[in-house]
Amino acid sequence: MPLLPLTVVTTLLHFYIAIRLVPAMGGLAAVPALALLLALAISAVSMPLPFIGLRSKATPLADGWKWLGLVSMGWFSSMFVLTLVRDGGMLATWLASLAFPFQIDTVQAQRWSALAVPVLATATSLIGFFNARRTAAVVRVDVPMPDLPWALHGFTIAQLSDIHVGPTIKRGYIQRIVDAVNALEADVIAITGDLVDGSVAELRDHIAPLSGLRARHGTFVVTGNHEYYAGAPAWIDELRRLGLRVLLNEHVLLKTRESRGAQTDEEHDGNLLVLAGVTDYTAGHFDAAQASDPQAALAGAPVAATTRVLLAHQPRSAPAAAQAGFQLQLSGHTHGGQFFPWNLFVPLQQPFVAGLNKLGDMWIYTSRGTGYWGPPKRFGAPSEITLLRLVRS
Fold it and tell me: Cross-referenced CDD domains, in alphabetical order (predicted)?
């Protein structure tokens, strides 16, 4: 939706919140009512600021204004949802009073519930801000695999996803992530898309710490939808310049241990791990030549190398990945919903929201993301750096 109509809609929704809450607070709550009106006015004016200049010739605003707009966006989201919940509760109470003989002080109920909405919205926004800005915690996950070669038992993959370097995520934030990942001493580092929200010229310096990622077999990246919004070809070149391997519907073969004694070619191939990567599920809409293709990503892989791991940004790549013969898919995209109530809507688009799940014989792990998108807010969906360990079952 273009910026102007979207701004009109969000402004009207701010008016709706004001009309529903401010009069209900009454004269005894004049100071909170005035404070709420001021906060709503600031929110309505500032929310469009992060998007000015993104798709027009207008000059983008400074990051400070974008910070204000994005924080307002997170607070407004909670305000709007809680206002709807309050109105639903008041309607249910009124209907119940018609059906059952009980008395309720409607004026007091409206007043206290009206006061509760901004208090709860502000509290969840503050908690969500802390959760979003802290360095993501390490989540350790064992992935059981039948017939996993003993040479691959204990193989570790550190997964990063959905960092969204941009207006509020900068070099210092990235450096903290790099330090935390390097401390894990993983065999492989996998970045499953949506790394950036901006052009190479804007973000080159902030993404630079990724060149310091260290793992035995290196760092591998696949594109997410946001790379295509930001100019995927330029970002692919930049990530390769930093020493990261970008997998575009292709695979690499990883030899995990030195062979002991003589091995046949088939025995040697059986101890290899096939690590493949596909472009984003929607990449074909931006560049037909980069349409996501799990089957093509396996082309030429040794038949005996049956341990096959796919990096795919969106969980909805899973059916095609399972059909292609992968044993494990690592994805992101969903952010685990990031904060209520958006976690309720993710299943409408994606088959999995977060965590380890199974589709047929294939495991799929969906990261809640290592950063955040838009509002610096995470509530009920903490960010994560995932350390996955392959184990023989």
Answer: MPP_YkuE_C
